[in-house]
Design brief:
14 helices; Lysozyme; mainly alpha; 2 domains; 4 strands; two-stranded antiparallel sheet
């Protein structure tokens, strides 16, 4: 396996881990990462502070780490983030601030925070819209913020042919390829939504191929064997891989009477154990 293939597998395994820990759909998270960064964990935007696999801007990243970091072993980061009287988040120590922002380039941290962020947006959107939120709805909340997504979706329902650039001029200036077609004509809200839906679906299909979330979990452990390095207690990476293969089935083919791929989308003692071993094997 080439270095690039190994990197891609580790990234997609990190996404599978985030999915199993949070219950957010693997295909949605994978499609979002593909759309945002092309699965490049070091990607940087040229028009904003957006960085990493999920292109979090600085304030959005600090907010989600402040809220959810401690749940995933980043308590030191969450505790270092403060909120001023104006609501702006900050970190007093410059070195610590940079270390927290650099976590956006770590696939495991970025995937977990993206999943938690999606979960928060899902609950809020469903409360506002009075219906189940789709993957595209969640992506709109990531792209425009919760308030912007609510505004976009409500306006699209009432006036589907309204132009997105008129409603979101600042976002349109920073993302002309989203709000305007190649000829420079502004796209309608419906067209913007449909293009995101197609790209999310295509991104997940093109990136994942035939490998399932369970398969990526197994591959991640296999890639990190390092001669049976001890992960936790008396268990080695070899032990972890053997457990994953026995319980889940090699590369996503569950054995009779064991966990199914669907069960990975909700945390269980078994998937939590696998998640812990994966994080440990990745050096987290």
């Amino acid at each position: 396996m080439t270095v690039n293939a190994i990197t891609a597998t580790r990234i997609q395994s990190a996404i599978a881990l985030a999915s199993s820990r949070t219950g957010i759909d693997f295909d949605y998270l994978l499609g979002q990462a593909k759309l945002e960064s092309g699965l490049d964990a070091t990607a940087r935007a040229g028009t904003s502070s957006a960085t990493g696999l999920y292109q979090f801007i600085e304030q959005s990243w600090l907010a989600v780490v402040k809220k959810h970091g401690a749940e995933h072993g980043m308590g030191w980061a969450a505790d270092s983030i403060g909120r001023g009287a104006n609501g702006r988040l900050s970190v007093a120590d410059p070195g610590t601030r940079q270390a927290i922002l650099n976590l956006r380039n770590d696939p495991a941290a970025a995937s977990l925070m993206a999943a938690e962020h999606a979960g928060d947006n899902k609950a809020a959107l469903e409360g506002r819209l009075g219906r189940e939120a789709t993957g595209t709805d969640l992506y709109m909340a990531h792209f425009l913020g919760l308030g912007g997504a609510s505004k976009f979706l409500s306006r699209m329902q009432a006036e589907p042919d309204a132009t997105g650039a008129a409603l979101f001029p600042a976002a349109a200036r920073a993302n002309r390829n989203v709000f305007y077609d190649r000829g420079g004509a502004p796209r309608s809200l419906t067209r913007i939504y449909e293009r995101f839906a197609a790209k999310l679906e295509g991104g997940a299909a093109g990136a994942s191929g035939s490998t399932s979330p369970v398969g990526y979990a197994s591959q991640a452990l296999e890639l990190e064997l390092d001669g049976g390095t001890v992960i936790t207690g008396a268990e080695s990476a070899t032990d972890a891989l053997a457990w994953a293969n026995t319980t889940l089935g090699r590369f996503g083919k569950p054995q009779a009477g064991t966990a199914t791929a669907a069960s990975l989308m909700r945390p269980t003692p078994d998937t939590a154990r696998l998640a812990y071993m994966m994080l440990a094997s990745m050096g987290a």
